[in-house]
Amino acid sequence: MTVLDRSLALGPLALSLGQLLLAFALVVAVVTGALVGRRRRTGVSDTLFTLVFVALAGARLVFIVRYWDAYDSIWSMLDIRDRGFDPLGAGVAALAYCGWRLWRAPRQRHALSAALLAGALTWAGAVYALVQLDEGGRTALPKTSLMTLDGTATSLPALHDDQPLVVNLWASWCPPCRREMPLLADTQQRRDDVTFMFVNQGEARQVIGHYLDNASLDLDNVLRDETLALGEHVGAQAMPTTLFYDAGGRLVDTHFGELSKATLTHALSRLASPQ
Fold it and tell me: How many domains, in total, are found in the chain?
């Protein structure tokens, strides 16, 4: 997991480090815009917040278009809990809005330009610093000791069979984990070219078995991480978190939060694409 994909739990709220950095960059942009705009008696905070909305809308729209067949209702398209956003769509929408705003509001040009530059530099500088401190991003398949349901000690490398690997960190008390589990179970049964492993975080064998029986889930490769060592190693402090490794055991993608059919399809397509 890259440093930006690591999750942080703030009480009941869980966010990725990347999301927190984006929020911090937005704050820097708003403050800079206010300071520069004060001289010209013009504000840009509303424009900046509108920019964020436009970028998110563009990112979501492009993602929906790309994975149209994976959505079965308007509600599923609007349900952004699956975190299905396209970065290119966000960039195009943001640039288009910025260009339009700079053209239509000449009084805002200096303040808005300064705000955008400050926010971009803050984001880029923070990302660069964190990546340099991240000790290579921990992209190799973790060797953390795990247990099978029958109590046998094992690890992800020991079970890796030289094909792409999906590792889902979950718990039975976690509502989004329970919501995404039928999708993962169905995909595991349909895809014999990808290995799925379900690593429970901190629950007893009896609790896991009871949940699987009650939910009528037939899962292969259910493992126990009794001490939460794997979650700590990959920087996942909230669940569900799903890690996607290529056939060589290199981390290709991560997904923090609930998976939908569209976001799972997107992640699996990255495993099949040359890196």
Answer: 2
